Amino acid sequence: MIRVQREDFDIGAEIEALTGGNDQIGAVASFVGITRADAGAAAGDAVTAMTLEHYPAMTEKQLADIEAEACRRWELTASLIVHRYGRLEPGDRIVLVVTAAAHRRAALDACAFLIDWLKTKAPFWKREETAEGDRWVAARDADDRAAERWHSGS
Amino acid sequence: MTLLYFAWVRERIGRDSEEIALPADVQTVAALLDWLRSRGGGYAQALEDLSVIRVAVNQEFAGPDHAVADGDEIALFPPVTGGARP
Fold first, then answer.
1. Structural domain includes residue B70
2. Alpha carbons A113 and B35: distance in angstroms, whole number
3. What is the pLDDT at residue B50?
4. What is the CATH number for B51?
5. CB-nearest partner of A125 from B56, B59, B81
6. Which residues contact residue B6 at a Cβ distance below 8 angstroms, ignoring those fewer than 6 apart?
7. pLDDT at A41 over 60
8. How far is B18 from chain A (nearest CA, A)?
9. Domains along chain A?
10. Interface predicted TM-score (ipTM) of this complex, two decimals
11. Which residues of A, range 104-133, sit inside 8 Å of B by Cβ?
């Protein structure tokens, strides 16, 4: 299940709604992405807020494809991706990935797979606000490498 | 054909979308980018460095050789930076 929304989400309520009452589930894994103030940045360069822009039609399609791929690779009982867009401040939740399976390995691996792919394939762009002005975040090779590792052996 | 622009590509071109009639000799993503760049101004500025331009044809990532045709929805944008902040 995929949702792209401006509003915040309640992690406990989302997990309960996805998995509650299903006695075939033995493991639930989750990933929560949170907006971070960049502690390593120079003074005046700290991120005070950011705005996430996205391409709605493509986002829905990409996220659905990524989730379908995870379901092909692992025996998942249920999965959920919630991604926010709009203006977010440090400490705000951005993204939630929940995977449920009979056993922990499928739930954990599928969860890691989903977040790695999400970061490289989902059409979102971040614009950061700092005391020095606004700037678009540049893509990082490290994210591409994190996603690439899922290619090996497949 | 519908063209959509996102993030700084949108800002440099100065609009978020437009409808265009495709010239007959523009049949690939690469040719479309060349043609757009030849319009100059914000297009030339936005498409100056194609290594940081990504293209989606009908909501799927597409390489330079991908075919384009009237009726397609084509989006131009920078590499994605989604998920939690890197």
1. yes
2. 38
3. 93
4. 3.10.20.30
5. B81
6. A53, A54, A55, A123, A125, B16, B75, B76, B77, B78
7. no
8. 15
9. 2-148 (3.90.1170.40)
10. 0.87
11. 115, 118-127
